[in-house]
Design brief:
234 residues; Cytochrome Bc1 Complex, Chain D, domain 2; two-stranded antiparallel sheet; 2 strands; 2% strand; binds heme C
Length: 234
């Protein structure tokens, strides 16, 4: 016990002796017992680097990188609507409803024409596959990968009850925007225009369900939907 107190006193003296060093300014690298990733290898802006073959520390963005708010080539054909518009308005385009009632059809703000409707649906497929497929499945049948991990009650979008006649485009747009029960809201993640593109693509998936079972049926329904949108745009 005697030695314990002695050891304790020595440790205490050391700690107290070292503490006053805190707060003093020194050009030396500080002694850190727990570095907590405070110091990491990095390159200062504009500094040269031996690591990269071209000797430059600064890296160019990866090909295809697009700053938020800029349109990629080819997307400008979509009626000149800014791609990153998230809403806030009260019209059909922003809410899916007209005077409190859900309505059908693509809003004219999309500026859909015969020429850009293909790009529009392709965009819908891309956005659907990124945001919706994990739950609703590639074909919209509600059997996405998350169903295997216990997300309950994922809607099968190919059912009759979700067809245009009973479940208007505007309602689907609203669910995408604001979510429902276990499904989250996408109004902060998916721009307005893309949400409508997803609605159009889900309609294509529904048509695909009705088509005869073949490998190309989704493609065919996709084309049929494209035709339909083209007609509507005229
Ligand atoms: C995290 C999983 C998940 C994701 C991702 C998801 N959903 Fe859902 N979705 C659900 C669930 C669960 C329901 C059933 C909600 C309910 O009625 O309880 C649902 C319901 C729906 C419905 C029917 C709502 C109603 O009125 O009954 C539509 C339409 C829909 N989702 C479309 C989409 C679209 C389009 C996307 C992509 C933008 C998407 N969902 C992304 C889980 C998801």
């Amino acid at each position: 016990m005697k030695y314990f107190f002695l050891a304790y006193a020595i440790v205490a003296a050391l700690v107290i002796g070292l503490l006053p060093m805190r707060g003093e300014k020194s050009p030396e690298t500080p002694l850190r017992l727990f570095p907590d990733m405070d110091d990491q290898d990095r390159l200062d802006a504009q500094a040269p680097s031996e690591f990269f073959a071209d000797g430059a520390g600064g890296r160019h963005p990866v090909d295809g990188t697009r700053p938020l708010g800029f349109q990629a080539d080819g997307e400008t054909e979509l009626g000149g609507i800014p791609s990153y518009e998230f809403g806030g308005g009260t019209g059909y385009y922003e809410t899916g409803g007209i005077e409190g009632y859900y309505s059908n059809g693509m809003p004219e703000e999309l500026g859909l024409t015969e020429d850009n409707v293909v790009t529009f649906l392709r965009r819908g497929r891309e956005v659907y596959n990124i945001n919706c497929m994990p739950c609703h499945g590639e074909s919209g049948d509600g059997l996405g990968v998350t169903a295997n991990y216990g997300v309950p009650g994922i809607a099968n979008l190919t059912l009759e009850s979700f067809q245009q006649a009973t479940y208007p485009d505007g309602r689907m747009f609203d669910v995408i925007s604001n979510g429902k029960n276990n499904m989250g809201a996408y109004k902060h993640n998916i721009p307005l225009r893309d949400r409508w593109a997803v609605v159009a693509y889900v309609r294509a998936l529904q048509l695909a369900r009705k088509a005869p079972l073949s490998e190309s049926s989704i493609q065919e329904a996709f084309e049929a939907q494209m035709e339909e949108q083209k007609q509507a745009a005229q």
